Amino acid sequence: METNAKKYCKNCGQAVSNAYCDQCGQRTSVGQITFKETFHDFAYSMFSVDAPLVNTLKLLVVNPGKLFREFLSGKRKHYYKPVAFFILTTVMYLLIRSLLDYNPFQDTSIINVGDSSEYVDGRKLTLARNFMLLNIDKLLFVFIFVLALYLKLFFFKKYSLAEYVAIAFYLIGVYTIFATLNMFYIHYTASEMHAGALLLMFIYFTYAIVSTIKKNRIWVLIKLIPLYFLAIVSYALIAFGISYIIISIKS
Questions:
Q1: The whole model's pTM is what?
Q2: Cα 70 to Cα 72: distance, rounded to the nearest angstrom
Q3: Cα–Cα distance between 9 and 242 in angstroms, integer?
Q4: Which of 22, 40, 134, 222 has a CA 20 to 30 Å removed from the CA of 117?
């Protein structure tokens, strides 16, 4: 008597005979959700050699241009999505910052303003500045879209604005990793290297874009210097404007 019943993928309904569905790639042994399965899937997606996050981090270090080109051309299954990557790095930064009780501007940049300020407008500007410095990590979305816009303006023929936004999510995710490492360095050495992450980001940004746009590399490099400067200045001005609006509403 034949006991081998035909199995079907619970995701797409395709008949299956292997451990993974040939149609959609889902495991064929999927059953009722358990805590064991949930943590197994999380650990696999984070730490497996073939996991999207591992592949993404590896290429972001070794050859970011290849990652950007392949992702934009449609090869996306084996790479961590840009928005998810940015969210993951931001959450890690905020968690570590909270655990360290870290204030990057303590005793140096924050100006104390009391109710006795002579000029209300001047007091608002100072409060807005303080708010921006203390919440700069929460305004990184501004940096993403500003960076993407300048990439489009300087290299408008290469990719669409939406594609540059995807690249910018990856780039700012890497910047967040630099900021996390810089936070450890400042916290444990009592150093004042607050601009360390921005400096590392400029070097990495140049390396990443040059490896993405392979033609006329010298000309690309020349363009990237003013592009990065303009993006940083624009980001700071917009972030300050948002902070000023928030302070004005609160007051």
A1: 0.77
A2: 5
A3: 49
A4: 134
